[in-house]
Amino acid sequence: MAAMTAHPPRHAFGPSAQEQADVREYAAFAATQDPVALAAATWFSRRGNLDVQQQADFAAWLAADAQHAQAYAQLKDTHRNARKIPAQVAARWAVPQAAPLPRRPLLRSLRVLPYAAAAMLLLSVGAGGYQWWQQQAVFSQSYATMRGQRLAIALPDGSKVQLDTATQLHVTLYRQRREVRLAHGEALFQVQAKQGQPFDVLSGPLTVTVVGTQFSVRNTLEHDGQLRVAVQHGQVRVAGARQEQVALTAGQGVTADASGHLSEVASLAPGSVAPWRDGRITFDNVPLGAALAEFERYGDTGLVARDPAVARLRIGGSFSLTQLDRFAAALPQLLPVHVVRDGAVSEIRMAAKMPAQAPAIRLPEK
Questions:
Q1: What pTM does this model have?
Q2: How far apart, in Å, do the first and last CA atoms of the chain sit?
Q3: For a pLDDT cut of 70, what percent of the chain falls above it?
């Protein structure tokens, strides 16, 4: 019978090569960590498996330094917040499972410790990282139109925005909210409804909040000292200064001044929400001077009203933005004025009063 080959017994003397690697791995890990944070993570990862002596050691560690208790409390808060993290997000921070554990209890604990402590430290970063991640923009873009220009844009969330003349806004989309800042001008919003993702438009002191609707926001504070919100479909909430808030539904609008004071809710005439998108401009009993200034937002009109009495005359109607000559021609039929060419401009002047007509004199027949 052939002699059996003798195999040296495992762990006959001292730790194995794998166990020595474990010690080096833990030492390398520990050298990169804050000692207090590492100790807190180690105690927290062992919190359910402490014997009487270890519980006494843990209590002594907590009492030794206020930073110890603070670090441990932060880990508890982190663990509590981390439980709110969706599973698919938490999986990104999962700690790889350790290799099969050695038999010896002491070295087994030593091997588990780096992963348990690493898990807690990663969890601490992860919970804060998740909150940071939630607040990072997924889309950010500025848009602007020049004088006389209009622009239609489609946003990644499915919403649509139309910009009027001389308008500037910035769009930022986050994972849980959407935000537009309208610096000046006017924009018409058609908001795609998204559950849990409100759409806010901030302009001057106003904040307009919607979920899904079509409305316009106008900021012409530099032009006429006003902000306006008008709703075509759906419902919006307008928040002004001093916690003033109003809810607007389709066919309603509100104005505000530079301080954010809101006016009474007004009913809107049909077709009066952003008529500029169809190349028209609408006036509802406004001073002629204000009407001319509104035309000037889209381009040079060549029309002036130097007489204050003429500028105060009130006008209403819908006019084409591309056929200003028709507006000028219609003025004498709408108001007691006539248009006189004066060098490079045409001045709108008050029409002269016609003298009363004398009775006709019948001459004697010859």
A1: 0.60
A2: 171
A3: 71
